[in-house]
């Protein structure tokens, strides 16, 4: 090859190297960019939790000056507005176009005489309308839209008792029916009708299917009251005493109040309410379970930051948010779980009523209806609510709970991340409890005791287990291991504990047996002998299952199950075993390489100084390889913490915060796999799930980084030593 050809060859080679370098570098930067984009996507979807909620006026709708808005009702063809025009009930509709002003259009009018009093619920099912006639007749109507027709159907009616509280007839005082302000509330078929007049409360309780069998009670000196139809109870405040009364007039609970009550606001769940005293302090009362009795108790976390009296309070049905509106039109959002306050803007117009409907707040102002968009409502879910114990409705004590859905009508969301973190940590530590003895025992055997011919087959076989998909391991654990654990739990635990002891014993006896049987024993067959010993150990443990049970728990009482441990969840133990088996190959591979790569000269020097094989292993080989072993354990912990399928398929996914190994768990990864696809985009649930994903990423990043730093530092320390 002449000089010119050599030059051309070098040029082509340089060009190929340059192109290859740029391509590899480009793909590297592409991978890094994709990784950073993924991280940004995770964190950006968690950021809305740290924004404060606010209201934005979308439009204002007008109606006739003689009309007054009463509420909003959702029929099967959309949202309608209920109003009272003079003496008539009217349905209105509006096309929300985003304009500053939109006219409400009348779609149906239901005429009544002016002597009738038309009632609607402040909360709940507004498709029901109550009417009190001048002849003391209460009628319940249902609004509906069927076959392109709007209808007002009479469903029930009762004749009211024409008596005052002092047993005088109404005709004696001759008041008109419309002067007596009636209110009604409904839950299912159960209805409560009430009227407060001059500190005298008159109540009617009845089933709309059986209106003739009603209960009528009268209470004196009533300052404030609140009907709770869902639990068929009445809350009455009289003479500074709060009484909880059921529909049979039996007093369930009474409490002496430390402060006066100016207003009561009942939540949508009807299992909690807020009170405000004359000093504008807002207090929460929550229904708690006290030895099977559900009673209201004061939550100590009062809201004293309010500087004025609250006129209205609205509650969101899909979150733990509430909105308070003062007489001056100032607004503030409240987290109902933690009582945290988020101030918002002034409405800039007086309000005669409001209703929270979906993601919008509707404010009524005489003959106007203002539609406000509620933005950044996810910010109501605070760090305190995510990581602190919270008093939940119906619970006996504060708790960490994750619950995002329920079939109960009094459901409230619970977004505590603590159970998910505890579940992930519990599953990871239990997996390490299984994996460390198995992986290190196998690593010590193959790297130090086993014959090289045995190692070359055994090591790749164990490492191949790392390629088994976790879903396969989870399936085997769920189908095969769970039934075994239910019947032979003690035997399984004993087998897991005894297996590393067997491996170490076999390793210690291996050389002695080989020397005795040097001519008759082929060391390549030792693996079969160990495998046979493992099988025999398993048969021994499982054959004596009843004996272990009797030794630990004694004989069962007559009528009890023979399996005493018994009425407990064993899924956590199965998760520990399955997850431990899944991460064992990773720990084994790194630890085995570290143990095997200890220089032979160090081993021989130890032997020359008179150390035994066991002393050399413990004080020399393991000490030198310790940095890599610790790194392997930490990396195994990180993988266990981020494992999804095994935990998802086996645990039962119980979102409880309990370190008891016999209780169920739910990890963060399993929770993401279960709920992310079911959550509404840009909801509190959706953003909280991304926050858990962020925590998961940060934790695994810290663990892996710490493992690498620890490995390098310890390696340097032992190298210098």
Quick overview of this protein structure:
The protein has 14 helices and 31 strands. It is an alpha+beta fold. The protein folds into 2 domains: about 350 residues, YVTN repeat-like/Quinoprotein amine dehydrogenase (Methylamine Dehydrogenase, Chain H); about 300 residues, MetI-like (MetI-like fold, Orthogonal Bundle).
| CATH hierarchy class name of the largest domain | Mainly Beta
Mean pLDDT: 79
What coarse outline follows from CA principal-axis ratios?
elongated
C-alpha end-to-end distance: 55 Å
Read across the widest sheet, the strand sequence of neighbours is 5-1-29-28-27
Largest sheet: 5 strands, mixed
Q: Could you explain how this protein is built, in words?
A:
The protein has 721 residues and is α+β, with helices and mostly antiparallel strands. It has two domains: 54-160 and 172-403, 7 Propeller (Methylamine Dehydrogenase, Chain H), CATH 2.130.10; 418-720, MetI-like (MetI-like fold, Orthogonal Bundle), CATH 1.10.3720. The protein is 40% helix and 28% strand. The chain has 14 helices and 31 strands. Strands 5-1-29-28-27 form a five-stranded mixed sheet, with no helix packed on it. Strands 2-3-4-6 form a four-stranded antiparallel sheet, with no helix packed on it. It has a four-stranded antiparallel sheet with strand order 7-8-9-10, with no helix packed on it. A hairpin with a 2-residue loop joins strand 12 and strand 13. The longest helix is centred in the last third of the chain and has 47 residues, at 470-516. The radius of gyration is 36 Å and the shape is elongated.
């Amino acid at each position: 090859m002449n000089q010119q050809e050599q030059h051309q060859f070098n040029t082509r080679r340089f060009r190929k190297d340059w192109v290859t370098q740029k391509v590899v570098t480009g793909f590297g930067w592409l991978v890094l960019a994709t990784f950073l984009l993924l991280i940004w996507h995770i964190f950006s979807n968690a950021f809305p939790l740290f924004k404060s909620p606010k209201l934005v006026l979308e439009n204002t709708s007008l109606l006739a000056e003689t009309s007054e808005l009463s509420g909003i009702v959702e029929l099967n063809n959309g949202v309608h507005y209920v109003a009272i025009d003079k003496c008539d009930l009217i349905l209105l509709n509006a096309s929300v176009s985003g304009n500053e002003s939109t006219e409400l259009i009348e779609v149906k009018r239901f005429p009544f005489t002016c002597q009738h009093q038309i009632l609607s619920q402040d909360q709940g099912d507004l498709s029901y309308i109550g009417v009190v006639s001048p002849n003391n007749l209460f009628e319940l109507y249902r609004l509906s839209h069927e076959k392109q027709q709007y209808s007002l159907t009479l469903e029930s009616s009762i004749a009211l008792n024409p008596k005052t509280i002092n047993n005088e007839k109404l005709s004696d005082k001759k008041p008109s029916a419309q002067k007596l302000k009636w209110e009604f509330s409904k839950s299912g078929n159960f209805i409560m009708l009430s009227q407060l007049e001059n500190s005298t409360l008159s109540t009617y309780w009845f089933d709309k299917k059986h209106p003739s069998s009603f209960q009528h009670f009268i209470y004196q000196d009533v300052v404030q009251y609140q009907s709770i139809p869902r639990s068929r109870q009445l809350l009455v405040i009289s003479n500074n005493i709060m009484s909880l009364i059921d529909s049979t007039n039996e007093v369930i609970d009474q409490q002496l109040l430390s402060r006066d009550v100016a207003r009561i606001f009942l939540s949508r769940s009807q299992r909690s309410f807020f009170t405000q005293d004359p000093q504008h302090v807002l207090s929460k009362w929550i229904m708690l379970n006290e030895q099977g009795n559900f009673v209201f108790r004061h939550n100590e976390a009062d809201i004293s930051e309010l500087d004025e009296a609250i006129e209205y309070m609205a509650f969101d049905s899909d979150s733990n948010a509430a909105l308070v509106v003062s007489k001056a039109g100032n607004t503030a959002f409240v987290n109902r779980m933690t009582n945290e306050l988020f101030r918002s803007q002034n409405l800039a117009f007086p309000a005669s009523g409001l209703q929270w409907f979906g993601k919008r707040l509707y404010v009524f102002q005489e003959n106007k209806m203002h539609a406000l968009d509620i933005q950044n409502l996810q910010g109501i879910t605070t760090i305190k609510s995510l990581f602190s114990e919270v008093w939940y409705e119906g619970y006996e004590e504060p708790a960490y709970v994750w619950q995002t859905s329920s079939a109960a009508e009094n459901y409230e969301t619970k977004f505590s991340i603590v159970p998910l973190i505890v579940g992930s940590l519990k599953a990871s530590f239990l997996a390490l409890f299984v994996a460390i003895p198995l992986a290190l025992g196998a690593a010590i055997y193959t790297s130090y005791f086993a014959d090289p011919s045995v190692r070359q087959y055994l090591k790749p076989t164990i490492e191949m287990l790392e390629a088994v998909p976790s879903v396969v391991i989870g399936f085997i654990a769920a189908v095969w291991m769970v039934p075994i654990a239910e019947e032979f739990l003690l035997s399984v635990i004993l087998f897991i504990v005894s297996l590393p002891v067997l491996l170490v014993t076999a390793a210690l006896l291996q050389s002695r047996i080989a020397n005795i049987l040097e001519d008759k024993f082929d060391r390549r067959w030792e693996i079969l002998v160990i495998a046979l010993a493992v099988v025999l150990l398993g048969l021994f443990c499982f054959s004596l299952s009843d004996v272990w049970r009797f030794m630990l728990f004694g004989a069962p009482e007559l009528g009890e199950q023979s399996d005493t441990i018994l009425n407990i969840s064993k899924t956590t133990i199965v998760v520990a075993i399955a997850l431990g088996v899944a991460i064992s190959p990773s720990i084994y591979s790194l630890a085995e390489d570290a143990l095997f790569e200890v220089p032979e000269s160090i081993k021989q020097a130890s032997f020359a100084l008179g150390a035994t094989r066991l002393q050399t292993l413990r004080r020399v080989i393991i000490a030198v390889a310790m940095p890599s072993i610790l790194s392997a354990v930490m990396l195994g912990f990180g993988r266990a913490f981020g494992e999804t399928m095994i935990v998802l398929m086996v645990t039962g996914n119980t979102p409880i915060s309990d370190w008891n190994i016999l209780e169920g768990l739910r990890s963060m990864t399993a929770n993401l796999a279960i709920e992310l696809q079911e959550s509404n985009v840009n909801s509190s649930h959706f953003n909280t799930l991304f926050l858990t994903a962020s925590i998961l990423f940060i934790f695994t990043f810290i663990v892996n980084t710490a493992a690498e730093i620890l490995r390098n530092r310890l390696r340097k320390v032992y190298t210098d030593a």
